[in-house]
Every structure is written in C-alpha cells, then in structure tokens.
Design goal:
alpha/beta, 4 strands
C-alpha cells in the first residue's frame, strides 16, 4: 500500500504521472489521509483544478482509496516532524509515519525528511 499526497492523487486522476510514479501506483493499493479529500474539494472550489467531484468515474476512483483518519496519534506525530510546511502536508506525512505506509510525493521538503517513509 502507498499513501498518496494531494498532488499525486490529482496527477493520477488526471493521467499526469511520471513513469516511475505510474509503475509504483500500478503495483500497490492506494491510500490517502482524510485531509487529502478536503484539499481536493478545496482545490476544485478555488478553481485551481478542474474536476467534477460528482462525476461517477471520479467518485468510484475516490471510493476505492483507503482513507486514513486524522486520529490523535496522527495529530501528535504531525507536530513532531522534521520539516516545515502547511498543516495538510504534515497530516499527510504523519499518516505515513503512524501507519508505516510509504508516502508518494513530489514535495521536496517532505522528501528530505528522515522520519517519513517514502516511496520511490
């Protein structure tokens, strides 16, 4: 299983993955932190991405994801990570730490972390 950050999920749904990302995703089950779903809806609302969250294909794709809850342990770990960044990025990375699931991200700050298990 892999944990996807928001941008990777958007790239995957839009067919914009790098070949290495596509290979990793084709071999693993996908998961996201619950905050990724909120970020996705917010990006659509703000017009930063064009996606119909009511489209049947999109709904089916999102319903296939395993969603990690934002529980107390995830919240606590998010405050102890070794990188800065916005709250959503920290919660996404914390889910990978707490659940031991590699994170697939292009975020350079997260990729420099010594704490977050990374895919690829």
């Amino acid at each position: 299983m892999l944990n996807l950050d928001t941008h990777i999920l958007v790239f995957a749904l839009g067919g914009m993955l790098r070949p290495s990302e596509e290979a990793l995703l084709s071999q693993n089950r996908w998961s996201v932190s619950a905050v990724v779903l909120w970020e996705l809806a917010k990006l659509v609302q703000l017009g930063r991405i064009t996606m119909n969250l009511d489209d049947g294909d999109v709904v089916r794709a999102l319903n296939r994801l395993h969603v990690w809850p934002i529980d107390l342990e995830t919240a606590r770990v998010s405050t102890r990570l070794d990188f800065g960044g916005d709250t959503a990025d920290r919660l996404i990375a914390a889910a990978s730490v707490v659940h031991g699931v590699p994170l697939l991200t292009r975020d350079c700050a997260i990729r420099r972390s010594k704490m977050v298990p990374l895919a690829g």
